[in-house]
Amino acid sequence: MTVKVYIVYYAMHGNEERLAKEVEKGANSVEGVEGKLWQACMCVPETLSAEELAKLGEPTKAKSDVPIITPNELSKADGFFFGFPIIFGKMASQFKAFIDETGDLWKAEQLAAKPAGILITTCCQGGGKEIVHTAITQLEKHRMIYVSTEIGYIYCTGMVKENEVEEKGEGTYGAGTYNGRVTNRSELADAFQRGVCIAVITKMFKEAAA
């Protein structure tokens, strides 16, 4: 029995993809789990101008060879990790539009009881990581199971370092980093461990339901 974990993200700056790739590696490190990386399709036309996108790292995103997934294809997965940037204190509208297109899955309860984690990027430490709490409502509507990092601490043993001061974008809400700088080693290692976490929990749920 193969357990499928989809890591689905919208990248505006490039750091979202870097973190997502580490989550994928973590998921694939768990026996019996297949992690797969996807870019969320743009269900509505891009709202930012070409000039604005270039400033935000659009050239990096355009060169990505990660396949694009449509909303209805989410039903094929057993668990998820969703990634997006925070823009002015909210989930990026591009990813929100992707989620808004999952109405048919909601009606058919295709995502119910499936675990899901979240990764985000912000412009700074006070850039709105708490917004993950409003993103959770999207999961709740689908009756999905939000995998809190409080559970993730079981697997993310390096998250709490009492004797080390380091600028880190991750936190108790989910994997994360800051845009405008290179994602550091701690953030990448954390994303990997969260991939392990979501894979282990997804596998447990699928085995229990079998």
From TrEMBL:
Transmembrane segments: none annotated. InterPro entries: Flavodoxin/NO_synth (IPR008254), Flavoprotein-like_sf (IPR029039), FMN_Rdtase-like_dom (IPR005025). Residues 5-210 form the Flavodoxin-like domain. Its EC number is 1.6.5.2. One of its GO terms (molecular function) is NAD(P)H dehydrogenase (quinone) activity. GO terms for cellular component: membrane. It catalyses: a quinone + NADH + H(+) = a quinol + NAD(+); a quinone + NADPH + H(+) = a quinol + NADP(+). Gene3D superfamilies: 3.40.50.360. It comes from the Eukaryota. Its cofactor is FMN. Belongs to the WrbA family. This is NAD(P)H dehydrogenase (quinone). It comes from Glycine max (Soybean).
